[in-house]
Amino acid sequence: MNTLQWIKLKRDFEEERCILMIGPNLASVEKDGKRAPMVDELAASLADILDMEKVDYDQKARKNLTYIALRFLSIKGARRVDLEDIAKDFIQQNSKKIPEIYDWLAKLPFHIIINTNKDDYIQKALVANGKQPLAHYYNFRRETNTRLDFEKVSAETPLVYNLFGSIEESESLVLTEEDQLEFIRNVVKDDPRIPEEILGQFDDRKTYLFLGFDLENWQFRLLLDGLQLREENTTLSPKVDRFPLSMMTRTFYEERFNFQFIDQNAIDFLGELKGKVFPVADEKSKENKKVFLLYDKKEEAVKDALENSLSQLVQNGEITIHYPGSFVAGTDESEIEQQFRNSDIVLAIVSPNFLANVALSETWLAKADELEKQEEIILRPLIARPCDWRENPILRTRIALPENNEAISSTHWNTVDDAYFDIVQSFKKLLK
Asked: Per the confidence metrics, is the pTM higher than 0.70?
């Protein structure tokens, strides 16, 4: 990009004119120690079922999700809801670690994000960066009567619109080739209609950043036309190494939708964008908060899961986490206590084991109570497993995490990940 293009892009961010479009190939999952496209791996997992059921399919299209999903429905007795359940479980189980690129995107001041993935990576990344996204989705099968309040939309509360559906309502997911056809047909004929508040954001004054799209796929031409993109728009598209463009396709997008193709992959482009458009913001770092964990050794698994959930905040330099086991072997007890006293936040991972551990429930907890009374720390109980913690004179006076006081192991949560996600959101409020 030339100097003028960078100047224009900077101004578009300042004037809230830049919309992020996330394509199906941006989301990835861990596979053999590397990141692999989520859509490919979901297709491969469905193909494994086809193999077990001895269903014929084109082996060369093993990682083509829409094709493999359609073949799955040819299995005797297979229902659409079975396909939805498998897709939902796969996404939830494989989207725990947020890809780096989503963290990069979450730091940028987008007000509107259109997501065509089935996962919620971008929402999680936004929350991890201290933002409060407003998430909605399109259901190509029926009207959802969702009203979007754009008065609340800002860089700190960005709108995330999941165009290809959401695992919250799995029937809305666009999974098969037939789904794609029905989705495009319904978008073009406005039945069900994409909310007017969304369509109203597409006009000739906007700049669109497209990431992770295979533009050789015919459906995106119709989709962009349905979203009313025109040649007056400014549309930036870094290259996707997996999907090189033919000259014919490139020319079509350049002339029809004013695409400006960038000879950089998404990560390299975003790195340059942050340096040229937000150099001051890039140099500023948030104040690092010191977090100390109190827990019984029998709750080591809970401690590890909590650390993983807070890892994005650690990587962002917002917090550091300490606990007795995090110190080098042989560290003097007085050094550990000094680190404890220097903490900003103390989280007590509460369980029956914690309450039965006198050193924790009386000695360390009493120290934390005294430090909070002196306004030197914040003490919060984190309820790991159901227990009578409200009978503890120190814990019962504190606001617990999760905020609904439901233990992490409680059946209240659909999955354990939901509990930890809620904890992260609540924890971020403490940082403010």
From this structure: no
DSSP letters for 221-238: HHHHHHTT--TTSEEEEE
Q: Is 331 helix (H, G, I), strand (E, B) or coil?
A: coil
- Domain spanning 3-27+96-282, CATH architecture: 3-Layer(aba) Sandwich (3.40)
What pLDDT is recorded for position 162? 95
Q: Distance (Å, rounded) from C-alpha 378 to C-alpha 372?
A: 6
List, in sequence order, every beta strand (DSSP E) within 308-417. 319-322, 345-350, 378-383
For residue 121, give the nearest of 63, 166, 176 by alpha carbon: 166
Q: Distance between CA atoms of 117 and 166, rounded to whole angstroms?
A: 8
Architecture of domain 289-431 in this structure? 3-Layer(aba) Sandwich (3.40)
Q: What are the tens digits of pLDDT across the range 269-303?
A: 998 998 888 875 444 445 688 999 999 999 999 99
Residue 220 has a CB neighbour count (10 Å cut-off) of: 20
Q: Which tokens belong to 158?
A: 């960005």
**Beta-sheet pairing, 34-37 with 28-31:** antiparallel
